[in-house]
Structures are given as structure tokens and as C-alpha cells.
Amino acid sequence: MLIPINRNTHDPFYRYKMPQLITKQQGKSKNVKTVLVNIGQISNALKRKEVLLQQFILYELSVNSMAKDSMFMLKGDYAASEIQDIVYEFIGLLVQCKECDNPETEMGVEGDEVSLCCYACGCRRVVESNHRIMNYVRKNPEVAEYKCYGEYDDRNEGVHDEDKSVQKDEDALSLEHDVLQSLNENFSSFYMSHLPLKHRIIKASFNTLINDRGRLNVYEKVFRQDEEALTLFFENLEVYLVENDKIKEMKVILDSLPFLDGADFNYFKKKSKVVDKKASVRIRNTLLNYINYK
Length: 294
Known about the structure:
Elements: E1 2-4, E2 17-19, E3 23-26, E4 33-36, H1 39-46, H2 50-61, E5 65-68, E6 71-75, H3 80-94, E7 105-110, E8 113-118, E9 124-126, H4 132-139, H5 169-183, H6 187-192, H7 195-209, H8 213-225, H9 227-243, H10 250-255, H11 277-288
Antiparallel strand pairs: 1-2, 3-4, 4-6, 5-6, 7-8, 8-9
Helix pairs in contact: 2-3, 2-4, 5-7, 7-9, 8-9
InterPro entries: IF2/IF5, Transl_init_fac_IF2/IF5_dom, Transl_init_fac_IF2/IF5_N, Transl_init_fac_IF2/IF5_Zn-bd
Pfam families: eIF-5_eIF-2B
Protein name: Translation initiation factor IF2/IF5 domain-containing protein
């Protein structure tokens, strides 16, 4: 089950979601332990390192933890609702923008300053708190770094070395946000002229792109000019469908992309390079019921 990242929102169309925390108890009596089953998925939804969220929970509960078979366990018996409240406290402190409440933020550490930069409104603020997690971040600044889609793989020949220095998906997402605001319908021209950035832009912005009709209208021109960009879009779509368990909703999602026609779906004639074989078959079988792409 997905729940809003902003616990105070009343917007029925709020698109920023995370998995609801799932716990299970192991052991009996004094040896009982609470397993946080999907803490990794929650961390990914928040775009924060799992170890950072884990440490915050440990500080809040003042307990020890242990790992077994890659599972994160707390010593003691804790209700899922109690830990879910702690997750929301973490969001309020180290995820959500204080100006616009948007969770699309990036953490930064400079000396003793821990800051949040918002991709939505551009606000940058220093996090002021006496919580123990702040000293943990200052001593371990690497926990503030989060790579949502991994390192950029440049597929284009003839790209200048100085352009290859662009290394962060977050930079591209921030750039895409600025460009969409300033150029709007001219974005496709900008996009095509910045080859080193183009795949990074789609990767970094995909989760918001798929839910944003306005962005999709702009990107339609990009897809018509750049076949490789459309391929990358479909790759990210496959990952999105699998990670969010939305394969059954594929028809609804495709209906929201009216600019795609039969020829565009030739991508699905080939085996997937980004999801496992079982998921790939499910996606393609579902698509068969939507459009005859053979």
C-alpha cells in the first residue's frame, strides 16, 4: 500500500507516495525482535540512503539493531504505526521543503552545515536541529549522498570531455526544472543541443514526468526527434511498472500518453534489458491486450 509522503496533505491527486511501513515480529518474550520489512523501499521513495533512515529510527527509539539475511531488525516489540510516525518525523526534518512542502529535495553537507535544496521552489535552507542525527550526518557526510538512478552512462559518440564532467542526476533534474519554466515549448530545441545531458535529464525526472501531463506534452517533441530518448523513456517505464507494482495498471498509464502510436511500441518486441525475464513477459503480455505491436 502506498501512502502520501506528506502526511498533512488533503489533495486526492497528490503524487508523491511511499510504501506504508510493514513490520513483523520474530522470537518470543525477552528475545522478540521487530523486522522492518520494507525499510529499503521507503528509503528509495524518499531518495535518502537507507542507513540514514535506519540510524534516525535507532536514535528515536534508543534501541540497538541487528542485521540477519539483509533484514534490518530492532531489538524489542514495536508497532508499525509507532515506527511509521518516526518515518514522518524523519521526512519533516531531512526530506520535506519547509517553504513548499515538496519532498523533491537534495541533502548537502558543508562543514558543520547540513542543508536541503528544493528542486520545486529552489529554496535552500540550513537544517537547524539538535537531533542526534545531525552530528551523525556531519561525521558521515557520505550518508547525505543519494544516487537515484546510478552513474550516467554516456551513449553518444563525439561528446566533449568537459561535457562528461556532468556527473549528478540531481544537477540534470534541477536543470530540467529551470528549463521547463523558462523555455516551455522550446525545451525540445534546448534538449537536442545538450547531448551529454539528455539521457540524464529523462532518468532524473522520470518519476515526476510520468505523472505530469504538462511535462509529457513538452517531451512529446523530444521523443519525435530522438528515438534513443523514447527508448530510454520505455526503459524507465518498465522499471517504474515493476518497482511500483503497476503492471496491471499499464493500460491506464498508456492511455495517459496519447502521443504514442503503434510504431512507438516496437521497443517491446525485444527482451527487456532493465527488468527480469518474468516481469518482462508480464509487461509484454499486458501490452498485447492493449495494442497489436507485432
